[in-house]
Each structure stands twice: as C-alpha cells, then as structure tokens.
Amino acid sequence: MDADTSAPLHQECRIVEAAGQLDLLTTPAFGLDLRAAGREAAGYRWRLIVDLSRVSFMDASPLHELCAARNRHEARGGWLRVVYTHAGIALLLRAAGLTGEFPRYASVHDALHNQSSRTYE
C-alpha cells in the first residue's frame, strides 16, 4: 500500500490517499496515516477525505481504523468522507453495515462538496 498525507486542500481538509491492497499487512501503516492526518488537522478544521480510488483490494482489516478516524473527527465537530470506486469496497462496507457511515464519493472533489454517489447494488 502506498499512502500519502497531503497538504490541506483549500485550507479546508486533509487527504489520505491509499493505493494497492489494504489488508492485514498494510492496515497498521494506513492507521498511522489516518492518525497523522488527525494530528495535522489540529490547526485546521477536522475534515478528512480518505481516497481509496486506487485501492485494488480491501479486506475488513482497515474498517476499524476508518471507524476510529471518523469518530475522532466527528467528536471534534468535523467529518471523514471516503472516496471509493471499486465495487468490492462497496460490498464490504454494505456487508459490515457501514454504508450509512461511509457513503460513496466518486472523487475528492465530490467528497469535498458532499456530493455522494449511489453505492453499488
């Protein structure tokens, strides 16, 4: 998994991008990136976009990290939005009962502007 915590987007949010596989082996690094984005948000608004559009495979391992990051941001009056286009991620979130917590955003732009997409059926 490649991950990058990028600079603030329009000074309004942070972005964590992941690519490749998110699984038991890569989840610890992914979790560190999510926590680092939260620490960096301290001077900004607590808004985080997690871009999974380049993730080719994801098992249930990172769900705890996503939920924990969402809880941290929401507890501070912010939000966490997830960009995903892979049908497998949509199915995983649906099976875990998390589609309400993580609606699908097709792009970072859509996530920034809260324009969620219909999830895969």
UniProtKB/TrEMBL annotation:
SUPFAM superfamilies: SpoIIaa-like. It holds the Pfam family STAS. InterPro entries: STAS_dom, STAS_dom_sf. Residues 3-115 form the STAS domain. Transmembrane segments: none annotated. This is STAS domain-containing protein. It comes from Streptomyces coryli.
